[in-house]
Amino acid sequence: MMKIGIFGGTFNPPHKGHTRLAEKAAEILELDRMIIIPSCIPPHKIPGKLASGYDRMQMCRLAFEGDFYEISSMELDRGDKSYTVETLRELKTLYPDDEFYFIIGSDMLATFTRWYCWEEILTLAHICAASREKGFEPDLSVYTPEQRERIVILDIEPFEVSSTQLRRIVAGEGETDLLDEKVRQHIEENDLYDDGLSEYRKILYSKLDGFRINHSECVSECAATLAERYGADVEKARLAGLLHDVMKNASADEHLEVIEKTGETLSKLELVNPKVWHQITGAAFLKSEGITDDEEILGAVRWHTTGRADMTLLEKVVYIADFISADRSYPDVGVVRKLAQTSLEEAILYTARYTVKKLVSADLPVHPATVDCYNSMILHLKG
Fold first, then answer.
1. Which value, to the nearest 10 degrees, does the dihedral of the CA atoms of residues 22, 27, 28, 34 take?
2. How far is CA 170 from CA 15, 54, 184, 279, in A?
3. 300 pLDDT exceeds 90?
4. What is the reported pLDDT for 132?
5. Which end of the chain is more exposed for a tag (fewer CB within 10 A), N or C?
6. Are 63 and 251 in contact (CB under 8 A)?
7. Are 156 and 28 in contact (CB under 8 A)?
8. What is the pLDDT of residues 339-350, one digit of tens each?
9. Cα Rg of the chain, angstroms
10. Would strands 33-38 and 99-105 be described as parallel, antiparallel, or unpaired?
11. How many whole angstroms from its chain centre is CA 177?
12. Percent helix, strand and coil across the chain, each to the nearest 5
């Protein structure tokens, strides 16, 4: 009987965090072999910066070298969303006498009981959770004693590679040693992640900190997904989402300089509310510097914080994407994400109400455009 590790993921691209986890898990678990399984990206996903299944397979072959590793296309071959239990069932027919060790991150263990057929998964494989933070001690009280015996906590020092770091690498910036050189060459030779936004990213890297760059990337992806869902221009949504916070880290003097240079004005209320300056100066900066003169994109940047009455479809998309992007974690974000699945207007109404309540409770002024946005949504939905 062999002990076989199962390590799945999008591997988009595979990086040294992945290979280090595989190596350490194999060492701790004393595995005989490891099967690497790139997951299928469903057709409805937005394709920007997502390499094809073929290229992700090729990169996995380059990153995970040696006879110890087997790179499997079984999930890609299914051509749609795959459930872990289906993969393990298939593997069990191929290796009926062997023992499986399914490797996941500690964050995934927290939601494991919500996985499809999770109880069956525990009969098919040991679940091996690699800690992503020091001192990781999960609550396993929901499991039976027999199930707990099938769960292994791997004490591996975290080696996190953020999406921001990867984006900077594929854009020709940042620490290239996070990727195997052969993987990096494959990306470069095949232009895998060239979505046409590299020049815009260079502008962001010169103006924003890492936190804000990551947020901008997340909003860009979310805006593209919403645009696809609701029929807006996907590429404009992706660019507007990327650029929406271009002036977020600017100093007060920089904001005022742009306002003076472009002839923009701030109302008395706006002057005492610096949090809305960046949407005004952002659009003005992008236009005055010749970065874009597309009025739809400029409008989406201009109104992404306050919203306004009678927003265009692209403005609605970017406004909501800013509220529900993957990096957001405020208390009501789950509610807004759910609303955004079926109605942009319902989501906007909820967020406008949320914003007004938050400002009023803190004795802060409410921008008239936010009030107009709220009223506009009420009239649209209730009228």
1. 50
2. 12, 18, 8, 28
3. yes
4. 63
5. C
6. no
7. yes
8. 999 999 999 999
9. 24
10. unpaired
11. 22
12. 55, 10, 35
